[in-house]
Amino acid sequence: MQNSESVVTPWEVRGEIDYDELIRQFGVEPLTEDLIVKLERHAGFRHILLRRGMFFAHREFGDWMKSYENGVKATLYTGRGPSGNTHLGHLIPWIFTKYLQDAFDADLYFQLTDDEKYLFNQDLTTEEIAKYTQENILDIIAVGFKPKKTKIFTNLTNSRPLYNIAVKVAKHVTFSTAKATFGFSDSSNIGMIFFPAMQAAPCFLPQYLEGKDSHVLIPCAIDQDPYWRISRDVAPKLGYRKTAGIFSKFIPGLGAGGKMSASMPETAIFLSDTVEQATKKVKNAFTGGQPTIKEQKEKGGDPDACVVYAYLFSLFDEDDASVAETCRACKSGERMCGTCKNRLAEKVAAFLEEHQEKREKAKDIVEDFMLKE
Ligand code: TYM
Fold first, then answer.
1. 220: Cβ below 6 Å to ligand 1?
2. Residue 269 Cα distances to 138, 220, 306, angstroms
3. Is the CB of 81 under 6 A from ligand 1?
4. Domains along the sequence of the chain with CATH
5. What are the average pLDDT values for consecutive 10-residue runs of the chain, which has 373 residues?
């Protein structure tokens, strides 16, 4: 999607995003209360990412749940492009994927696009990408996926099944469609042009490997949707089911505007950050506060413009009464930004400590999670 203020593509997210407009432009459906109620019934509780509207759109999510109710194997597919350390934004779809895996006892296929990051990035060597791939895998395992039901794979090491599917996908996608969907140009290298077929391939991998029907749901942020448009168009031509999708908004960076992005490390919380580093970033975060304490007391702050509030609201404060009170106290001028920053810093610190402990433990069980072809 592109207009004068914002850009949302798989490689670039910038500007003020109007998510209702994005729903219209991408042709996805809003996630309705009916679907959330149904999901909640399967899961046993309503996840904070649903309660606070982070997951906001879908493609045929209702049909996917119906397939499960009719006895079709529930399967999930998500992924990561290993171009650096994992940050909190990447974790949003993965935390939600775990919720879905638990709710539907689903198999999970997890792709690492080590080829993508080499083809699209001028500066990264294959050795650096291989190192990030191993690091990212530890973060993925630390999320808590079920080892017996999770298959992690990388495009460069598991190319045999993926390439077999990708050539079939690629044969049905013209250069003109790829250009219109992904914005390729004459200066794009030919690897970039083929790559969408590699990201589409896992949509069909469960059926390819297991030879039986399964309905695949893709949880991810909305930037990845262009791939699913291609894979859904191609699916019937290859005799596969179309994938369903469930899409999140972006968690912002800690600066003024824009999603959390590894390209702006001072405004991103990496899962490898020390508590001291993360605390410093939170303390420097952009808030909706007034320039002086006097003005804050007189005029109050603006939670809607505040990234500290956005983090508490979207992910870190589960308690509805507590977030409502934060919002009220900020607007009325009773609460100063330092109080919210301290609160968030504490929550982030607790989260990082727990994650890093699980990450250490993950080192011993990596092999249990890797795809065996
Ligand atoms: P990557 O590594 O850029 O992102 C990994 C996942 O994180 C999501 N994401 C975010 N979500 C919320 N807030 C943010 N600030 C934020 N930044 C990134 C992305 O949407 C993605 O879900 N090409 C892909 C890798 C991939 C993939 C997939 C992703 C391969 N197959 C299937 C999702 C589903 C990539 O580079 O993602």
1. yes
2. 17, 19, 16
3. yes
4. 6-250 (3.40.50.620), 265-360 (1.10.240.10)
5. 70 88 96 98 98 98 98 97 96 98 98 97 94 98 98 97 98 96 95 98 96 94 96 97 97 86 88 97 95 93 94 95 96 95 98 98 98 89
